[in-house]
Amino acid sequence: MTETNGWTLRETLIVAVLGAVFGVLYLGWVQVWLIAQAIFGPVTMDVVMGFWFIVSMIAAAIIRKPGVALISEVLAAGTQILLGSPAGLLLLFTGLVQGAGAEAVFAATRWKRYSLPVLMAAGVGAAIFSFIYTWIRFDYGALAPGLLVAMFAIRCLSGAVLGGFLAWITVNSLYKTGVLSGLRIDHDRRAAAVT
Fold first, then answer.
1. Phi, psi of 29, rounded to the nearest 5 degrees
2. Domain coordinates of the chain in residue numbers?
3. Residue 51's closest CA among 118, 134, 153, 126?
4. DSSP 15-80
5. Exposed end of the chain (fewer CB within 10 Å): N or C?
6. What are the tens digits of pLDDT across the range 27-63?
7. Which tens digits make up the pLDDT trace of 104-129?
């Protein structure tokens, strides 16, 4: 297979479909967060946040090209807006921030590693970027230092588990069905099996 950073039509469609599907799931996840927040309080957002990063890791692990994590997360945000999310256009920036956090980790591997630890690190990357963004947006500086540390740690753990680990399980499950045949993930896994 020739190395190229250009996307095929199939890859573009897969990223678009994943963005749309997870946009719907993300919007539904807001309801989970609101119900849990009513029971457990404000730290709940950090507990559930990792799921809002997952499409960036799934798409990146399948397509394995620069920009996939970022674009898939922005597409998911755009889908939520089209479906009437009350957050409105601000979601595009949120998707950009979260996708950039995951993308930064894949960039650090030169888009060559998609193991479980890398996917979990990408979830943490998205968590760190999102935490900085919500710190600025919601004035986290006014919160007690102990609470901030707990929120940050919980969000990073959520990114690693609900983002990275769950993405790894999802991608492996999809791969076993054969639907990812012919894609970069398939070529890489077949090449690894030969060596």
1. -65, -25
2. 9-186
3. 126
4. HHHHHHHHHHHHHHHHHHHHHHHHHH-TTHHHHHGGGGGHHHHHHHHHH-STTHHHHHHHHHHHHH
5. C
6. 999 999 999 898 888 789 999 999 999 999 999 999 9
7. 999 999 999 999 999 999 999 999 99
